[in-house]
Amino acid sequence: MRIRSTHFLFTIALFLGSISASAIRAYFDYRVFHIPGQGPYVEFVTSFDGTTFAQAEADSGYYHSKAELTLIVTQGENVLDFRKITVDGPYVKFNEKNDFMSLERFSLPNGVYTIEIEIRDVYANLPEPERASQKIMIDNLSEGAFFSDIEFISAYTPTTEENAFSKSGYDMLPYISSYFPSNLDAIIFYTELYQLNNILGDQQPYAFYYSVQDKFGKEISEATRIKRQTSALVSPQLHIIDITKVPSGDYYVVVEARDKTNKAICSKRRAISRNLIVAIDPANQVISEEVLSSSFAARFTDRDSLYDLLQAHLPIAKSQERNTIDNTLPTSELKELQSFLYSFWYKRNSKEPEKDFLVYEQQVKDVQSAFGTRIKKGWQTDRGRVYLQYGPPSTRIQRPHDPDYFPFEIWHYYETKDQQHDRRFLFVNTTLGPDYELLHSDVPQEAKNNDWPNLVKTRTNSTPSDVSRNSNQQFRDPYSGDELQDLWYNPH
């Protein structure tokens, strides 16, 4: 008898883009299953972001998108399987959300393969499809008991008519991610347990165990369950894990079959990331009257003005603090707001919280004076937000009246507040009003648009709406002689 914990396969998300103005986006995942007596098969799931596909009007007056999907499975120089299908999106009102999905199954023996993917937007009339490729590996056991891969599910219903998403009596819509944000309070998963009857005999009792565990193998007790079952050749497992009390972090979903002595027979796991943002209850953050009355926060006695000031802290607030400012503080009393303000800065400088607050308060006034408009406060603008979040730039290049460009600014940082070095921000004004929008930055978490050299110069040959599109066009030669690029790469 072979007992082992088989390796796990990560979800693969491929963001398919192009240098065209109509770049499309899709996500790809695969899971390995098994048919006893026949061998392994692979499910390839492609999820299409409908917002990036063109829409065509149908006779009904509704609109839909259509993708042409090509999947080619190769091993070395050999093509083992080939599929070319058309995938229709749902019929919706114009510009309504219309994501859609495809699922294809391929029978493949154990081995390493390459899946080549081509996607074409049927209604966009683009000359070339989007292309990507990914290595896959299959190593199912030929004997002993083992699990299939763990598949995450976004929704399921009993099957009434067999279709591509039908399995074990249910229609299951895959969840193409291993990331579970705050708005999801459960993980729905599906897996199959094979050949346990070869180990225990037919219809023998065993325990099916599933849990969420951290990287050290510690279980989250609220997300752990044991189900009593009987052995079979194939045991489908569709379960829901409550993750309302699973804090933010990286974990594994673990499934395991155990015999009547509680000894593990086989197991499987899949990595997940959890992001649980819980608002801070201001009532639990109230500072004592003695401390609060003598603090800098006590000088703010108008509730509405204080809340406006707290909103101006959003550019530097952490996720939990932002959630509290946006969702809890709008209905809080004055004392709770004062306590939150004091706690906010006490956590950053316990010795002199007022000192840091006064510096930031002045910066808020500065960005209001420099960047505020009739419809946006200074901290709400892109330039104001960047100034508050990263600090004042080391150099600021301003070109408000160049006839060859939309008005633009390049901000260069020798070092940002969070200690990133040699970073840049490009702001552009396509409306010719007072506000500039962030078009491109080399800071990892900020906006990216690699076609920025063309978009800033489109004053003479395009429209402002083009600025919002993203592309994967590579950067041009930094020594091209073009003024904009020279200023970007050599801002000193």
CATH topology of the largest domain: Immunoglobulin-like
Quaternary structure classification: single chain
Structural class: alpha+beta
Inertia-based shape: globular
Say which CATH homologous superfamily of the largest domain is assigned: Immunoglobulins
Count of the domains: 4
Low-pLDDT runs: 1-22, 460-480
Terminal Cα span = 69 Å
CATH architecture of the largest domain: Sandwich
Question: What is the overall pLDDT average?
Answer: 85
Radius of gyration: 28 Å
Number of distinct helices: 9
Largest sheet: 6 strands, antiparallel
Quick summary of this structure?
The protein has about 500 residues and is of the alpha+beta class. It contains 9 helices and 24 strands. The protein is about 15% helix and about 35% strand.
Description:
- The protein is an alpha+beta fold and 492 residues long.
- The chain has 4 domains: 1-141, Immunoglobulin-like (Sandwich), CATH 2.60.40.10; 144-276, Sandwich (Immunoglobulin-like); 282-376, no CATH class; 393-489, no CATH class.
- Helix content is 16%, strand content 36%.
- It has 9 helices and 24 strands.
- Strands 10, 11, 12, 13, 15 and 18 form a 6-stranded antiparallel sheet that branches. It has a 5-stranded mixed sheet with strand order 14-20-19-16-17, with no helix packed on it.
- β21 and β22 (408-415) form a beta hairpin.
- It is globular and about 75 Å long.
- The termini are far apart.
- Residues 1-22 and 460-480 have low confidence and may be disordered.
